Design the sequence.
């Protein structure tokens, strides 16, 4: 088992944190767990199927798992600002820092409030309000 801290910023090992969700061994129980695991999927690349399976189908807007598997940015770090849940709805506000080629020296960030919904015990990403 890999003892390195998870890429999502938690101190737990990847296998005990986001890795268990990306492998299908477990299902996120909170909107924040889902958001962190989706960040890990983007940061690592190659997890388009996971991203599609955790995205509310009506809001996918024609994206494909192949597209989502491509690692287009060099994700550096994740900061969760706020996380809330009321019943079957949740919101997670975060900042995610990245570098984009060809200017790998330039660190930029995305600030987003993501909306989530739980349907039959499974959380889905609905969409985002960028900040």
Sequence:
């Amino acid at each position: 088992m890999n003892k390195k801290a998870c890429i999502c910023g938690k101190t737990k090992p990847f296998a005990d944190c986001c890795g268990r969700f990306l492998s299908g061994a477990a299902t996120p129980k909170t909107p924040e767990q889902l958001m962190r695991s989706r960040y890990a999927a983007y940061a690592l690349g190659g997890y388009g199927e996971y991203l599609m399976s955790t995205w509310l189908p009506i809001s996918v807007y024609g994206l494909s798992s192949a597209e989502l598997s491509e690692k287009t940015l060099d994700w550096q770090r994740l900061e969760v600002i706020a996380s809330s849940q009321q019943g079957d709805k949740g919101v997670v506000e975060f900042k995610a820092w990245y570098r984009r080629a060809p200017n790998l020296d330039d660190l930029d960030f995305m600030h987003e409030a993501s909306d989530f919904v739980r349907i039959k015990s499974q959380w889905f990403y609905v969409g985002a309000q960028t900040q």
In short: The first strand starts at residue 74 and ends at 86. The longest helix spans residues 31-44. The chain is about 25% helix and 35% strand. The CA atoms of residues 114 and 128 lie 4 Å apart.
